[in-house]
TrEMBL record:
Domain Knr4/Smi1-like stretches: 86-210
Top-level taxon: Bacteria
Record-linked Pfam families: SUKH_6
Name of the protein this chain belongs to: Knr4/Smi1-like domain-containing protein
Upper taxonomic lineage: Bacteria, Pseudomonadati, Pseudomonadota, Alphaproteobacteria, Hyphomicrobiales
Source organism of this protein record: Agrobacterium deltaense Zutra 3/1
InterPro entries in alphabetical order: Knr4/Smi1-like_dom, Knr4/Smi1-like_sf
């Protein structure tokens, strides 16, 4: 018999099977069929909502790009034409008082940038200075609107309308000042009365390219 030291103890390692037998069993939560169906339905609805949100974000981004592009095209046409020059806020307020209206926000901003425009394919009445408009090159929105009111021109009898352009065939293009934060364009003549709820730059871009018919 081999010699063993009294201080040495034999250590036995428990087998994996024994360890498993000594541990309590893992209790898995019981999930009902109804709960599984609810979770599946929630996942489907969440996926549909995320898909719709992505499409909405994409459409908004594309719309923003399109608006920016169209605005740049309009600005380019204006700058290629004849511009009278920016108008001060107090001049705009004086013109509004003369006509008894408040200019739509978009038109007022346009006046601050251009004043009045004579471009290729369209003209927009504004507030040109007398010094820069001799001989007359640009039309004044105040004088034209007042003159049309005196002549009882069709369309001018409505006090909210201001004449900002004409198509060369006896039809005037008005803006309805009742729409302040949005733009409503009205084409009115002896045999025409059409309304376009579009921005100034979209309207005149389409008008210059022949995409507007009335």
């Amino acid at each position: 018999m081999p010699w063993r030291s009294r201080n040495t103890r034999t250590r036995r390692q428990a087998s994996p099977v024994a360890i498993c037998r000594t541990r309590p069993p893992l209790l898995l939560p019981m999930v009902s069929t109804r709960t599984c169906a609810t979770i599946r339905l929630f996942a489907i609805l969440l996926e549909a909502a995320l898909s719709k949100l992505c499409k909405l974000w994409t459409n908004c981004t594309l719309r923003r790009i399109l608006v920016t592009t169209r605005r740049k095209e309009f600005d380019a046409l204006c700058y290629e034409g004849q511009i009278s020059g920016p108008v001060e806020t107090h001049e705009i307020q004086h013109a509004e008082a003369e006509l008894g209206v408040q200019f739509p926000l978009e038109y007022a901003d346009w006046l601050r940038t251009y004043g009045a425009v004579l471009a290729d394919g369209f003209t927009i009445f504004g507030l040109p200075s007398a010094e820069n408009n001799d001989p007359p090159l640009w039309q004044n929105v105040v004088s034209v609107t007042q003159q049309l009111r005196e002549w009882k021109q069709v369309g001018a009898e409505r006090p909210s309308l201001i004449a900002i352009s004409e198509d060369g065939f006896g039809n005037y293009i008005y803006m309805d000042t009742l729409f302040y934060s949005e733009s409503r364009m009205c084409v009115i003549g002896p045999d025409i009365n059409k309304v376009f709820d579009v921005s100034i730059y979209n309207f005149f871009l389409d008008f210059a390219s022949g995409n507007l018919n009335w």
